[in-house]
Task: structure prediction
Amino acid sequence: MNEVYITKISKFLPNRPISNDEMEDKLGTINGKTSKGRRIVLRNNQIKTRYYAIDDNGNITHNNAQLTKEAVMGLCDDNFKAEDIELLSCGTSSPDQILPSHAAMVHGFLKNGNIEINSASGACCSGMNALKFGYLSVKSGQTQNAVATGSERTSTWMKSDTFEEELKYLETLEENPILAFNKDFLRWMLSDGAGAFLLENKPKGEQPLKIEWMEGYSYAYEIDACMYAGADKLDDGFLKPWSEYPSDQWSKKSLFAMKQDVKLLGEHILVKGVDSLKKALTKHNLKPTDIDYYLPHISSNFFKDKLYKEMTEQGVEIPWDNWFMNLSKVGNVGAGSIYIMLEELAHSGKLKKGDKILLSVPESARFAYSIALVTVC
Result:
């Protein structure tokens, strides 16, 4: 088996940073009224700025595949061209269409010759799953290099016109036309952007990062879906897919909007996350004190102190000084967040040879977790 190194990291964040006060100008108001939940959610998540693939005139500037293509091109220079890529592995929870796959669309924009592609579906863990596919390909010798990406373009999913038909329908039923909190909640959480890693079987570059191991854990066998899109959650927890509804119900129920069961999220996301972390550290005989930098992808700073408390209670406490996050500046970029976090750390000038970096990504869709350890070479 080959060793696998992250030799280059790139990110692409579209347009300019958007402040909290500008969000409804970009996404629109629901039923002509400012969201009551917005201030509560923003106060809890403590995100100050985020990025949207929407310009100041309201025009869409990039789709998801275009964002990803820009991140991939950020890896390329005179020494490594797009045509040198042997495998392109892309993860996202917000593909531009059902078919073709996200990676196929990114490859279409790259126009870099005949290569292998892989699309990892899911939510936040899709970016890590894309990374693992590339990691295993290089490790096994199937390819000498791979590019892995994580990206999201969720802003258009959150625009007010997505929900207008539902609100009109509620009015015809003489019900209060207020957007349910499980839909409104995510409008103030998510950001657009993309990140990319170049994986190679040699430690090239100024400061390569060796991938020591990657682990994944799913708790779907015991917990109902929490975050979902393209479906409606019934009272018994069953997800009824959009394809089983008449087409006139798709907009009336905002079936394609992203929704989150906030109660279920609070009950399980931290407990299962720390349980999976403990499993991974135990498997690899790694102590929390061995970790120099802990990069947790969390959707909201609301969970930060609670995560630390849960880690302490389960005996896997990582000191605050070793945490590294950039949520407040870039927002929650879902599958792209861990790429964008590591990019900032790698270019911060803080890293030194031998530093151990733990990447931790939860996915609330049906509670899955991805964990990886990388070492600075």
